[in-house]
Amino acid sequence: MEKSVLESGCELVTLALKRHTTHEKDNILSRLKHPRLNLLPNTSGARNAEEAVLATRLSAESMHTKFIKLEIHPDPKYLLPDAEETLEATKVLAREGFFVMPYIHADPVLCKKLEDAGASAVMPLGAPIGTNKGLKTIDFLEIIIEQSNVPVVVDAGIGAPSHASYAMEIGADAVLVNTAIAVSGNPVEMSRAFKLAVKAGRLAYLSKFGSMSRYAVNTSPLTDFLQ
């Protein structure tokens, strides 16, 4: 895990609060003590806003950070986020000074409500968690990115470097990847592949794509050389 994280070039590592322990010999954080890395605790396992708020307050004390990835998914089978509870928890935590990054459906209306509620970023899913299906919500992701005034992190469902690159090409600010790397045949090399894909996608977005045409367009002029 440590080698994969470092090879990926990432700066934020998310950690479920239920996986955290203060016992040094069992503490996963002891493998992530590198200057570049910052911890992003998440509330995975919370079933409602009340549980998520409590978990966030505990994380601030035990992990010494005001950043939180807000996850509320009461259904253990599909792990889909609860929109109403997520919005309510975001309002509470933003008022308390937390930097809230909610994991939610790719719902443009919900994303604007979360932004208005004080979310520091929005994290819409590309596909259900762990499915590796890619950007199944692409049409909605494009709308979210177009109208968002906070960073957009595409979270969940990314299964290949090409998926990550595509997310960056359409203007996402970042992607969150776990399963695609963790279950690959070579997690360290797969981490490197994702790093390169994210860089390529971002560079392509900043370079601005050429327009599409219904008809063929000559890449070499037929007569201009005669001038």
UniProtKB/TrEMBL annotation:
Pathway(s) served: Cofactor biosynthesis; thiamine diphosphate biosynthesis
Catalyzed chemical reaction(s): [ThiS sulfur-carrier protein]-C-terminal-Gly-aminoethanethioate + 2-iminoacetate + 1-deoxy-D-xylulose 5-phosphate = [ThiS sulfur-carrier protein]-C-terminal Gly-Gly + 2-[(2R,5Z)-2-carboxy-4-methylthiazol-5(2H)-ylidene]ethyl phosphate + 2 H2O + H(+)
Function: Catalyzes the rearrangement of 1-deoxy-D-xylulose 5-phosphate (DXP) to produce the thiazole phosphate moiety of thiamine. Sulfur is provided by the thiocarboxylate moiety of the carrier protein ThiS. In vitro, sulfur can be provided by H(2)S.
Molecular function terms, GO-annotated: thiazole synthase activity
Keyword Translocase applies: no
InterPro entries xref list: Aldolase_TIM, Thiazole_synthase_ThiG, ThiG
Annotated protein name in UniProt: thiazole synthase
Lineage: Eukaryota, Metazoa, Spiralia, Lophotrochozoa, Mollusca
Signal peptide: none
Residue span, Thiazole synthase ThiG domain: 1-221
